[in-house]
Amino acid sequence: MSDARTPLVDRFGPDAADVELGGDVPSVLKQLAARGSVRKFRPDAVPYPTLQRLCALALCAPTKSDLQQRDIIIVDAPALKSEISAMLADGPLGQAWTADIPSLLIFCGNNRRQRRIDALRERPFVNDHLDAFFNAAVDASIALSGFVIAAEAEGLGVCPISAVRNHAAKLSQLLKLPDHVFPVAGLAVGYPAEAPKVSMRLPLSVTVHRNAYQEEGLDEAIAAYDRRREAAQPYAAQRGVKKFGLAETYGWSEDKARQYAQPERADFGAYVRRIGFKLD
Ligand SMILES: Cc1cc2nc3c(=O)[nH]c(=O)nc-3n(C[C@H](O)[C@H](O)[C@H](O)COP(=O)(O)O)c2cc1C
Fold this sequence. Notes:
The chain has 12 helices and 4 strands, in the order H-H-H-E-H-E-H-H-E-H-E-H-H-H-H-H. By secondary structure, the chain is α+β, with helices and mostly antiparallel strands. The chain folds into 3 domains: 34 residues, no CATH class; 149 residues, NADH Oxidase, CATH 3.40.109.10; 48 residues, no CATH class. Helix 3 packs across helix 6. The termini are far apart. It binds flavin mononucleotide (FMN).
């Protein structure tokens, strides 16, 4: 096995050994193979022109039907950024690491412009159903991904923050988001103060399908992934020990099962309906 393949094998396990990632592939591919989220940053903010360039690159990503239903909000007013960061860090679901992120972006789905265009062109908007929300959310996610790839290629560290949706209504108010514009995820951006770790993933046999979806061997694959991950990247702490107890072995599947045994963002659907979406 060549060194260039190592991050993919580290990440996906032995079934990635066949994946070609030799010396002649573009460096951005090697960078992607070894990437990881960063949650510890040097204190200096990323200059606005750099963020603007990365936003432009992110918005070069594909967009459903060329509708361009996604916007990015660069939050660099110090008081506003502090208020949002503190909100993300506070409370039972708070994430302490967000308290002092150097630069913060909010990726939003935007179905409002389409409705404005329909009014301007005096055409009826007859697609006021789940797709209107879904398409905008997907467009925002694709732009987020484009930003992540570009920023990491530039040597910056990033970490998406879905926790912004724990505070969707308050955040909308702070950012003056009108109806039909909604936060999909935040993104912390900065100069890394730690090397990103290669976070292990389920084997490709589970998540890449050929011609048809299949689940053969899924439970065994999850158990093997749990073992592989616990040996190489054990969780620093178990989730919800008070409620679930201290497990002798604690792998990825136990962590995810515990995570989704607790209510999370149960009010998000009500927020989405309140800002005008019909989700039929
Ligand atoms: C849409 C989205 C939302 C996320 N939200 C959070 C978050 O709120 N807090 C956090 O620490 N990480 C968040 N993450 C980062 C994931 O935890 C991370 O991508 C995952 O653990 C895999 O690690 P890696 O990015 O280092 O490969 C989010 C990632 C995505 C794609």
